[in-house]
């Protein structure tokens, strides 16, 4: 299944697969996360973020979430010295325990904190 972040770059002829271009470069990371779901964030899943971009991230979490659900994500950033970094994200895809999340209106401060992770990460796509 292709997520909505992928855009076709050409129509593709019969028998030839379409080529897709992502909106943002992706970076490999290994960060623990906590996903808080439900109206009062009472449902909590722990997991690991394994791919990060300016627009969102991929993660494996210990549970399943429906597409389009808005959740709160917590993860520790080294520069915050143990404080949890929180922001909202929308579930864009879910396949078993693998999920894709898109950040929902991150602040400038949040964008800068995410960008700091890129300098510590390897580009994967």
A few lines on this structure:
With 125 residues, this protein is mainly beta. It contains one helix and nine strands, in the order ββββββββαβ.
Topology:
Layout: E1 6-8, E2 20-22, E3 27-37, E4 43-52, E5 56-61, E6 70-76, E7 84-95, E8 98-103, H1 108-118, E9 122-123
Antiparallel strand pairs: 1-2, 3-4, 3-6, 3-9, 4-5, 5-8, 6-7, 7-8
CATH homologous superfamily descriptor: predicted glycosyltransferase like domains
CATH-defined architecture: Beta Barrel
* Helicity range: under 10%
Q: What is the count of distinct domains?
A: 1
Low-confidence regions: 1-12
- The rounded distance between the terminal residues' Cα atoms is 17 Å
The overall strand count is 9
Gross geometry: globular
CATH class: Mainly Beta
Q: What's the gyration radius in Å?
A: 15 Å
| Overall pLDDT | 79
DSSP strand content: over 45%
How many H/I helical runs? Answer: 1
User: Structural class from helices and strands?
Assistant: mainly beta
Can you write the helix and strand succession as a string? EEEEEEEEHE
In CATH terms, what is the fold-level topology?
Answer: Thrombin, subunit H
What's the story with the biggest beta sheet? 6 strands, antiparallel, barrel
Can you list the strand order of the major beta sheet?
3-4-5-8-7-6
């Amino acid at each position: 299944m292709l997520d909505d972040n992928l855009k076709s770059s050409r129509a593709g002829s019969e028998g030839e697969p379409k080529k897709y271009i992502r909106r943002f470069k992706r970076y490999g990371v290994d960060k623990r996360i906590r996903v808080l779901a439900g109206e009062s964030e009472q449902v909590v899943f722990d997991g690991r973020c394994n791919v990060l971009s300016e627009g969102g991230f991929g993660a494996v979490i210990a549970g399943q979430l429906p597409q389009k659900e808005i959740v709160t994500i917590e993860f520790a950033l080294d520069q915050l010295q143990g404080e949890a970094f929180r922001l909202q994200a929308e579930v864009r895809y879910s396949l078993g325990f693998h999920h894709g999340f898109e950040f929902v209106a991150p602040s400038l401060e949040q964008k800068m904190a995410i960008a700091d992770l890129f300098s510590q990460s390897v580009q994967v796509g």
